[in-house]
Amino acid sequence: MTTPSAFYLDCDTGIDDALALAYLLASPLASVVGIGTVSGNVSAAVGARNTLDLLELAGHAHIPVAVGAHHPLAGSFGGGAPWVHGENGIGEVSLAPAAASLAGESAAEMLVRLARTHAGSLKVLAIGPLTNIAEALRLEPALPSLVDSVTVMGGAALAPGNITPVAEANIWHDPEAAALVLAADWDVTLVPLDVTMASVLEEPHQQQLLASSGAVPRALGEMLGYYFRFYEGIYGRPCSAMHDPLAAALAVGAVRPALAPVVRAAVDTTSGPGRGQTVCDMRGLYAGYPPVAGARCRVVLSLEEDFAPHLVDTLLTLGEDAAVLDSTTAALASAGALTR
Ligand code: BDR
Ligand code: CA
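Above: the input record for the complex with beta-D-ribofuranose. Below: its predicted structure, written as tokens.
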């Protein structure tokens, strides 16, 4: 049996963040050891409450959640995207308020602590603006040598942006942070709009979730109703892109890219029309992307298989017994049988 990898998740929960979190909880390849939130789809504080509530619903209330940066490195939080994710960030679905409280550290502090605890093996998955990751790099300049991998949902390599003609939301909301993260001394896997907009969840998938006996898949199915209404304006039918859960599945290694060249990438931090663009050097396109000296950004452009069936099948494993699972986990942990 494969040992699950330790994951730090940085998110702005968010409907598709909720899908990504649920996917990680369901995946046998991942063990989430900490979650930090950042302002993006909602404020970092609201994202943290959503995360705690989802964790409790899923029977994983033991996973620590830290509130991260409220404002980007430059400027201030713009109020989120209620027209995409709802006022509460999770499509106006009401979850029971979690009893668990927030960690007594910031998200950046949590990431640094976990990177030291799981030195060389921690996988970082960032599915919101990159402010916390940039702050962690400032707190611990050796962070790149401490983590195993960094996967970022963000950017647009050859595809158009979704906030401006060239900027994707997670990068747009903190270009200065994204620039620092892409320039740091580590290899980054970028999961941009090129591949996430081509990975679509349709109404029959939503129906499968709604018909589940599990509270988590059903809640996600309800959230998708809101998300589908937004994306209907983009695709012309009720459906949605799968940004964050796809990044999660790529990070755990459950889905394989068909095309993912390793290129040089930087972020435009000017105040002109290019602000927030991920400037990926895709000039190798015509030669089949030959290796580029010094390139460190693996840009996922396409997948070997359709992602939606795998996502739904994995989410449906989060069944009714989640609360029982958590009480078992808590009992084992208090008996010292589990270490984190
Ligand atoms: C990204 O922006 C957010 O709205 C989503 O949660 C995703 O992380 C897509 O551009
Ligand atoms: Ca997100």
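Notes for the reader.
The chain has a mean pLDDT of 94.
The radius of gyration is 19 Å.
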